[in-house]
Structure formats: C-alpha cells, structure tokens
C-alpha cells in the first residue's frame, strides 16, 4: 500500500484481486460498495484521486493472471465513482453555504458573519463596494465570477445571484474590479442590461447599505427614464432626499405641473421638453436635437409651459422649482389621475 494512502481505504482490495487471480471471480455488490465507500472517504480526507488509483493498481503488481484485470477495472471504477460523488456532494454543500452566507450578508444577519466571511476571503472590517447587474443571460454569471477571480483573486471577489440580480462585492481599494465587472456584463448580457454601483461602505452593515444603494440606483434610473447603462448611487443622492417627504413632493408636483394636464396634445411632450432643456443646461438648440424637433418647436413649447404654469426655466429660481417638480413627477409616476383634456 502506498504510504500516501491510508490502508483502510483499500481494505480487502488485495484479497479481492487474489481471488480473481485464482478463480476469475469478479467483485460482488458488497465489495463494490466497499470500494465506493473507500473512494468517498478518500475524497473527504483530501487524498488525491491519482494517489488512490495508483495504490489500487500497485496492489495488482505480481498478480499476472489475466483474470485480475477485469476485477481491477471494476474496483478502480467503483473507487472513482465514490470519490466523484463525494466531490459533487462537497461542491453542492459549499454552494449551499455560499448562498446562505450571501443571503445573510446582504440581509445584515450577523450570526457568525465575520467568521464565515473569512472563509470566503472577505475581511469585514474593510470598506467594500457592491455592484449589481440586471439582465442575467444564461450561465454568463459563472464565467464572470471565474474571470474576475482569475484576475483579482478569490479572496477579493464575491459574486452571487440574488433576487434576479448578479451581485459583485469587491474591496473599495480595488476600483478596477468594478470596471472589469461592468465590462464582462456588457460582453455577456443581452441588450437591456444595466449596472448599479453602490458607494464604498465599511463593515457588514456597510455591505448591506452599498447593496441597497446599488439596487436602488437601478430602480431610480428606471423611474427617471435615464438612458445610462451604468448608474452610480453617488450621482443620485439628491433623489432619496427629494422622496423623504413624499407628501411635500406630491404637493409640489400637483401645484406646479397640474396645468399641463389640460394642454392640447397632452402633458408628456411638455415634460419631455423640460427634461431635455435641463439636460442641455438651457441650450434650446441642443434640447431640440435631443427631442428630434426644431428649435422653434422647443421655443413654442417653453412658451406654453410658462403660460400654463407661470414658471419659466429661464429664471434661476423658477428653473429649480420646475426641475424639482419634473423629477418628482417621474419618481412618483405622475399623473396619478388622468383628467379629460380640453
């Protein structure tokens, strides 16, 4: 027996081979089960499969009878079957533990979190950034995790799927990993994907906060109709502030924009014109290009808005009020009731 393989893993193996050499008898069901159990135990002990197989083959040296080979083949096949099943079970258990850890981490459940985090290479006292991607495509998530860990190391990257989002947790000291994650999402996901990036946060609670910011950035981008593929929570900080007093925001939207509901042609073209003007920093020609209309049409719409609401984007104070009202309308899915138009 090889000194690298515990003797009990191949107990009875030499006797089985000698019987095969003498009588031609192949291993029976009980013997094959014992081989499978030996293979499972070898996997659990961390014995390399090649060492186990080598030890099984070495035991046949000196037994020259042709009938030994069929018995040896069955024995080795049973050993390998047990070994592979144990490895598969271990992988499934590791994945279950990983999913449970990610779920606890992103929910902020603190039971043995720091201890478990070390197992996955995370040092929770550090600052981390959470990035999420929407628009999963088949098995692309597995390839992204493999590519990221190959470049940055498995101790620096945690990738998992949660609530339909691909979640990537990286140290704040590795900003390049966020860009690499986005690159792989762009190359693997179908059209319609979007990435949200949370702010760097420290500790287990920080990871939860960064995850919620990243997912919230995706939601805000949808509600605001943003065209960007990558949205950063740091760029959208004003919107949670605006929504903090919902009743005040609803009152502002209603007071400022309600007159647009009675405009001929509907309110939507006028809202889109205001959004284009704000995005173009007041440049009517640039706004017209964004909208695909003439500059004259933009001027005419702005005059209608001023006439209906009493507010003009040319006045700094009124511009701020209008822009805030338009943002609130998009965030709150205004109008809430659609009156009959004139």
UniProtKB/TrEMBL annotation:
Ranges of residues in domain CdaR GGDEF-like: 110-220
Pfam families in alphabetical order: GGDEF_2, HTH_30
Domain PucR C-terminal helix-turn-helix: 270-326
Sequence similarity: Belongs to the CdaR family.
Stated name of the protein: Helix-turn-helix domain-containing protein
Superkingdom of origin organism: Bacteria
């Amino acid at each position: 027996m090889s000194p690298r393989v515990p003797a009990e893993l191949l107990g009875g193996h030499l006797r089985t081979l000698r019987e095969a050499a003498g009588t031609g008898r192949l291993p029976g069901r009980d013997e094959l089960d014992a081989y499978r159990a030996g293979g499972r135990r070898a996997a659990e002990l961390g014995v390399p499969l090649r060492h186990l197989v080598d030890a099984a083959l070495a035991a046949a040296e000196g037994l020259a009878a042709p009938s030994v080979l069929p018995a040896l083949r069955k024995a080795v096949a049973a050993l390998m079957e047990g070994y592979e099943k144990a490895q598969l079970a271990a992988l499934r258990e590791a994945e279950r533990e990983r999913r449970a850890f990610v779920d606890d981490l992103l929910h902020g459940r603190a039971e043995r979190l720091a201890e478990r985090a070390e197992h996955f290479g995370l040092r929770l006292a550090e600052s981390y950034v959470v990035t999420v991607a929407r628009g999963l495509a088949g098995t692309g998530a597995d390839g992204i995790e493999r590519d990221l860990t190959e470049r940055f190391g498995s101790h620096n990257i945690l990738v998992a799927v949660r609530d339909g989002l691909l979640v990537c947790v990286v140290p704040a000291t590795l900003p390049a990993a966020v860009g690499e994650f986005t690159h792989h999402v762009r190359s693997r996901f179908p059209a319609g994907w979007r990435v949200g990036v949370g702010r760097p946060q420290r500790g287990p609670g920080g990871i939860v906060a960064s995850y919620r910011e990243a997912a919230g950035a995706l939601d805000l981008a949808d509600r605001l109709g943003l065209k960007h593929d990558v949205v950063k929570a740091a760029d959208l900080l004003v919107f949670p502030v605006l929504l903090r007093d919902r009743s005040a925001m609803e009152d502002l939207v209603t007071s400022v924009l309600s007159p647009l509901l009675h405009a001929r042609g509907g309110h939507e073209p006028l809202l889109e014109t205001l959004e284009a003007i704000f995005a173009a920093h007041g440049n009517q020609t640039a706004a017209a290009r964004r909208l695909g209309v003439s500059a004259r049409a933009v001027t005419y719409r702005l005059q209608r808005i001023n006439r209906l609401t009493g507010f003009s984007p040319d006045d700094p104070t009124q511009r701020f009020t209008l822009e805030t009202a338009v943002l609130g309308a998009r965030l709150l899915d205004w109008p809430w009731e659609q009156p009959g138009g004139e």
